[in-house]
Specification:
By secondary structure, the protein is an alpha+beta fold. It is built from 2 helices and 5 strands.
Length: 83
Amino acid sequence: MSTFYLVLDGEGYAHVQVEVYADGTVIAYDAEHDEDRYGVLTYAQLDLDEFAPYEIGEREFSEELGRLCPMNLRADRPWPPGR
């Protein structure tokens, strides 16, 4: 099972995307790192109503991301986003 964390704007476009896989692999994308050999930041407009039941607060989001270490980002890059 995989877990995805997304920061969506008011129109449903992702600005941050974090993918956590069952084996512990974590990859992340944002405006500064939107594509690499592992994947890409989604460019699709997502339905906000469809994702509403999965919404978490900014604090919980930051705490969860603070526990993760994306393997596809440079080690010297601040993580999580906005830090």
